[in-house]
Amino acid sequence: MKVSDILRVKGNTLYTIGPDDPLAEAVGIMADKDIGSLVVMSHGDLVGMLTFREVILQIQRNGGAIGDTRVRTAMDDAPLTCTNGTDLDEVRRMMLERHARYMPVMDKRMLMGVISFYDVAKAVVDSQNFENKMLKAYIRDWPAEEEGAQNQPSL
């Protein structure tokens, strides 16, 4: 399974913010849209990723307040990325290794979408459920052996 399979099911709604926008605005967007991340874009280029983790760390550094902090101060400026063709096993490995919950999907310099660890886990579970269903159907439809054929040696 590839990243493109997840994006095809998930859709292509993207939420972005600029690096010089107020962090408070980013938090407002994340709360209003019920999302855990924003892609930080500048002049059409991916420059970072802002997740609830970075927001919480920045609030802690600010003594419990957002203040007039800019997105640039809190964002991850070197986020993991993948492509549409990246295999899901590779994405899982990368996300687990870096403790990343969100990963931008890029096609050269163009942002194609964002996948979450939830999206990856759901795709794996759905794939396993489908495989189990097919195996059970195969077993249920197993051809019955004729009586007497059980005791005869096969050639």
Automatic annotation (TrEMBL):
InterPro entries the UniProt entry points to: CBS_dom, CBS_dom_sf, Diverse_CBS-Domain
Keywords assigned: CBS domain
PROSITE patterns named among the record's database cross-references: CBS
Sequence ranges assigned to domain CBS in this UniProt record: 6-66, 75-131
One Pfam family matching this protein: CBS
PANTHER family per UniProt: CBS DOMAIN-CONTAINING PROTEIN, CBS DOMAIN-CONTAINING PROTEIN CBSX3, MITOCHONDRIAL
Protein name: CBS domain-containing protein
Protein's organism: Pseudacidovorax intermedius
Upper taxonomic lineage: Bacteria, Pseudomonadati, Pseudomonadota, Betaproteobacteria, Burkholderiales
